[in-house]
Amino acid sequence: MVVPDTLDLVENRRRMRAGELYYTFASDLVAERERCMAACRAFNLLSTGGEASRRERVEAWKTMVGDTTPLPPPVPTPEEDTILLNDYPVVEGQVKFDYGYNCKFGPQVYINNACTFLDILPITIGARTLIGPNCAFYGATHPLDPTLRDGTSGPEAGKPITIGPDCWFGGSVVVLPGVTIGRGVTVGAGSVVTRDVGDFVVVAGNPARVIRRLEVVVEGRAAVTSPVASNSGPSMCYITTVQPL
Ligand SMILES: CC(=O)SCCNC(=O)CCNC(=O)[C@H](O)C(C)(C)COP(=O)(O)OP(=O)(O)OC[C@H]1O[C@@H](n2cnc3c(N)ncnc32)[C@H](O)[C@@H]1OP(=O)(O)O
Q1: Which residues contact 233 (CB under 8 A, 6 or more apart)?
Q2: How many CA atoms lie within 13 A of 130 on its CB side?
Q3: Are the CB atoms for 155 and 137 separated by under 8 Å?
Q4: Is the whole-model pTM more than 0.90?
Q5: Does any ligand 1 atom lie closer than 6 A to the CB of residue 170?
Q6: Would you say the CB of residue 109 lies under 6 angstroms from ligand 1?
Q7: What is the distance between the alpha carbons of residues 120 and 21, in angstroms, rounded to a whole number?
Q8: Rg, Å, the chain Cα set
Q9: pLDDT, tens digit, 9 for 90 and up, residues 138-184
């Protein structure tokens, strides 16, 4: 965990943000990950404790992902407050981020237990996307040359990951650095997504391949929406047919 004596922290951070090789054990980055680790611990305690209110969980979530926008004031009953906070992610169990503030989640995202987000660069998850247990979004990569890689003393690089709205990830999916996934995609359990995926397909396997396509016959905003969806406006409404390959 040593970094070069001459390391310029400003230049190191510029390189990190540019997706170039940088040193992850620079003191400022270690401090940011420790902040995030503490925030994750606090969130995970609340999330698995069973007694925290929806508002307490959302506050802990916001701390973890560095969201400083104030929540709307509480309303009289816990049930109404839950509806008011409907757009914030629902997390079932534990979650792990590196920095937290690089993760941007759309409204009404669901994250099942034990998901990992290595957010060196932005990881963006679209609205209403559902993430199964043990999924991993790996936005970090290391040199293939072992001499340059050099264990904990060597440099690494980040790549962004972008997921569209209305996707569903089965359990234990791995998404590799730099991948973009479109809208309305289903990713089968246990898949490793190594390449970009277009809209409205089902992919599965390692490496993930298209196993089905959905033809979108009609697409628009839902005319009638559930009252709990009102914070973010009407949900998307699709009429699709599943096509053979
Ligand atoms: C948000 C949450 O918490 S989710 C909770 C956890 N649930 C899950 O993880 C369930 C995830 N579901 C799956 O993986 C499903 O298999 C789906 C949705 C991807 C596909 O379902 P279907 O369209 O019904 O596919 P179907 O079962 O007909 O399989 C079609 C082909 O794809 C293959 N296939 C299906 N799923 C997978 C998979 N995960 N990995 C590899 N191959 C797969 C099948 O073997 C089959 O191949 P074949 O034609 O050679 O026999």
Answers
A1: 221, 225
A2: 10
A3: no
A4: yes
A5: yes
A6: no
A7: 12
A8: 20
A9: 999 999 999 999 999 999 999 999 999 999 999 999 999 999 999 99
**Centroid of ligand 1 to alpha carbon of 174 (angstroms):** 15
Q: How far apart are CA 173 and CA 171, in angstroms?
A: 6
Residues with catalytic roles? 142
Show the tokens assigned to 232.
């973010």
- Residue 113's Cβ-count burial label (10 Å; 0-12, 13-18, 19+) is middle
Helices (H) and strands (E) in the chain, counts: 5, 19
ipTM value: 0.98
**Protein residue with its CA nearest to atom 18 in ligand 1:** 188
Among 107, 78, 102, CA closest to 160? 102
**Single-letter amino acid, residue 131:** I
Residue length of the chain: 245
Residue 126's φ and ψ, nearest 5 degrees, are -75, 165
How far apart (Å, rounded) are the C-alpha atoms in residues 230 and 110?
Answer: 17
Q: How many CB atoms lie within 10 A of CB 186?
A: 20
- Closest residue (by CA) to atom 10 of ligand 1? 170
Per-residue pLDDT of 122-134, as tens digits, reads: 999 999 999 999 9
C-alpha 210 to ligand 1 mean position (Å): 11
Compute the distance between CA of residue 215 and CA of residue 231 in angstroms, rounded to an integer.
Answer: 29
Sheet of strand 110-111: strand arrangement: 90-91, 110-111, 130-131, 168-169, 186-187, 201-204, 209-221, 236-243
Task: Tell me which of 128, 211, 245 to substitute to probe ligand 1's pocket, judged by most ligand atoms within 8 Å of the beta carbon.
Answer: 211
Closest to 120 measured CA to CA, from 40, 37, 33 = 33
